[in-house]
Amino acid sequence: MSTAKTYSIGTLTYTMPRLLFVSFWVLGALLSLNLLAYKMVPTLMPILFDQHHVSASTMAILTSSIPSIINVFVCPFISTLSDKTRTRWGRRIPYLAVSTPFVVGIMILIAYEPDIAAFIQRVCLPETGLNQIGTWVLAVLVIVFQLAYLIPGSVVYYVYADVIPKQFIGRFMAASSFLGTGVTFVFNYFVLAPAVDNPKIWFPIIGGLYFFSYLMLCIFVKEGEYPPVDDNINRQDKLIKRIKEHVALYFRECYSFRIYIMLFITTGVTQASTLCRGMFNLLFATKDLGMTPKEFGNTMAIGAVIAAVIVLPMGRIMDKLHPIYIFMVSGFVIIAMNLWGYFFVTDAASFTVVGVAIVVIYAIQSLSSGPLLLYLVPREQYGQFASANSLINCSIMFFASMLGGYCTDLFGYRMIFIWDFLLTILATVTLFVVYADWKRAGGKENYVAPLYQSAAHRG
């Protein structure tokens, strides 16, 4: 009598139907987070602030600068704490279960900011202008939302690393990317306009979808068992000393091996390589090439559709090969496309060809970046190492954003090709170092992630 084939990760074992069931709810949580935190709130926040006549610079501080600073301090703490949590419900699910009501509640309060401001004026500050009170209420709610969102925004990405077998990660990420494109289309086509007109209706609707998807994740996705935490830190020491030791241990574990440092630099430089194109691609197309915004939008839309179709089979290819090869080959193609673009993009037709090609190849490389980190860092400390990667990425982006703007001022919008060309070369060089260390550590078949050992452990 034949038995169903099973697939394992850690102490978890699945049949294919069970694996598809778990993947469905994890994907649902990722897509609802995408809709709420990456589409709904960021898109509507400028509009809500503009209703209070808030300046663009103040908007940038409230929606970008302050959240980035909060992220630098909170993400490593939450990620590392999650790695070391041991409960009967797992190490990730408790954080999602506790944070979900807060995220949804604050999101709904944002939609009702005018009513909250009017209540505060009526009860507490009758002499203060309603617009001023509304501005402060909205600013506080947005900052609190960003703080609350950091918990699920970090931890949910560690769930799939813990519950999806590695041989399916590529296909899982491909499905996530494909469905994410669909979510973007649905949001822009069906939700955006009515949400602008009726935030009190649409914020609760999207919040409800988010709440339902995370509730189902917490109910139906079960984590496995994890080994006990042994960080060799004396729990009897004073709090300040223990905090210092935890911080020092964090940096030693994450940055003691060249392979991790070069990996983090590779992902950070790759992220920075798209910075100038992200900021100035539309201006290059319209001002230098004479394209209309509609022509530019059509080009990007064509690229997004093609990319969505291509990433599905790429997931299976990545599972059979290794994400490091996909990332590396993509880098070579990006270098070539930017070199070609700098010399030969002179009109709308040539921009469309190169623009679509770059969108597609970056979609493929982006598909491989998450699994690449997952394959190379210690699985038991994935959250901690993901946050260490984020720290490097944020640092690189901070300096790159200033340098990229300065270079574009000096050399014009065609600088987008040179910027991407040079930074992708740098990322490819650092990736070769990662590749060499990966091969020495066992390569595709026998790789074992290096682990820091304290003197006490070595003894």
Can you describe this structure?
The protein is mainly alpha-helical and 459 residues long. Helices cover 80% and strands 2% of the residues. The chain has a two-stranded antiparallel ribbon. α1 (16-50) runs antiparallel to α5 and α1 (16-50) packs antiparallel against α7 (199-220).
Helix content: over 70%
What is the C-alpha radius of gyration, as a whole number of Å? Answer: 23 Å
Envelope shape: globular
Please report the total strand number as a whole number: 2
Average pLDDT works out at 86
Unreliably modeled segments: 455-459
What structural class is derived from the secondary structure elements?
mainly alpha
What amount of the residues lies in strands? under 5%
Q: Sheet with the most strands? A: 2 strands, antiparallel
Q: Distance between termini?
A: 52 Å
Tally of DSSP helical segments: 17
- The strands making up the biggest β-sheet line up spatially as 1-2
What is the N-to-C order of secondary-structure elements (H for helix, E for strand)?
A: EEHHHHHHHHHHHHHHHHH
Keywords, separated by commas or semicolons:
459 residues; mainly alpha; two-stranded antiparallel sheet; 17 helices; globular; disordered C terminus
Layout: helices, strands, pairs:
Elements lengths: L5 E4 L2 E4 H35 L5 H29 L8 H19 L1 H11 L6 H34 L5 H29 L1 H22 L18 H17 L2 H16 L1 H14 L4 H28 L2 H22 L3 H29 L5 H30 L3 H26 L2 H4 L8 H4 L1
Helix pairs in contact: 1-5, 1-6, 1-7, 2-5, 2-14, 3-5, 3-7, 4-5, 6-7, 6-11, 6-13, 9-14, 9-15, 10-15, 11-13, 12-13, 12-15
